[in-house]
Amino acid sequence: MGKDKFEKSLETRLDKTNNKKELMIQCLKQSMGIVSQACEKADLSRTTHYEWYKEDPDYAAQVDAIQESCIDFAESKLMELINGAKHEVATAKGEVLTVQDGPNPTACIFYLKTKGKKRGYVEKSELEVGGNGINITIDSLI
User: Fold this and answer.
1) What is the biggest distance separating any 2 CA atoms in the chain, rounded to whole angstroms?
2) Is residue 141's pLDDT more than 70?
3) Whole domain around residue 124: which residue ranges?
4) Cα 96-97-100 angle, rounded to 5 deg
5) Pairing relation of β-strands 96-100 and 124-129?
6) Does position 62 have pLDDT exceeding 70, yes or no?
7) Residue 50 pLDDT > 60, yes or no?
8) What letter would DSSP give residue 32?
9) Which of 73, 101, 116 is the last residue of a domain?
10) pLDDT category, 127, cuts 50, 70, 90?
11) What does each C-alpha distance from 61 to 20, 69, 109, 116 come to in angstroms?
12) Across the chain, where does the E strand assignment appear?
């Protein structure tokens, strides 16, 4: 027995949705996980993206994997700064030299504040309350 018009219409809509999801995944990869840019490239609303994310576990897993990949990339760039980034410089004679910068102190501090908390690399502030000598220590999230 053949499919009725409703079943064919439903299959067509599902195919279009799946194609749009695949396009959105590709756009997320290209935009390094930035949803607004990916939605613009895919001609899709952010609301639709987040509905798919909430309702489709496979789609959500692919989006999460892209986000993890982007974090890995950013961490690798942070480590390059900590180790001293290498870059090429052209001389006046047209020669290309590879130069290595020294370690970036700001990158080192950021890394220690985020990854070194267990070793005590946390900013703390003391606040005196009421003048009774009561001190409160506040761990900063910065």
Assistant:
1) 87
2) no
3) 86-139
4) 145
5) unpaired
6) yes
7) yes
8) T
9) 73
10) low
11) 16, 12, 33, 29
12) 86-90, 96-100, 124-129, 134-139
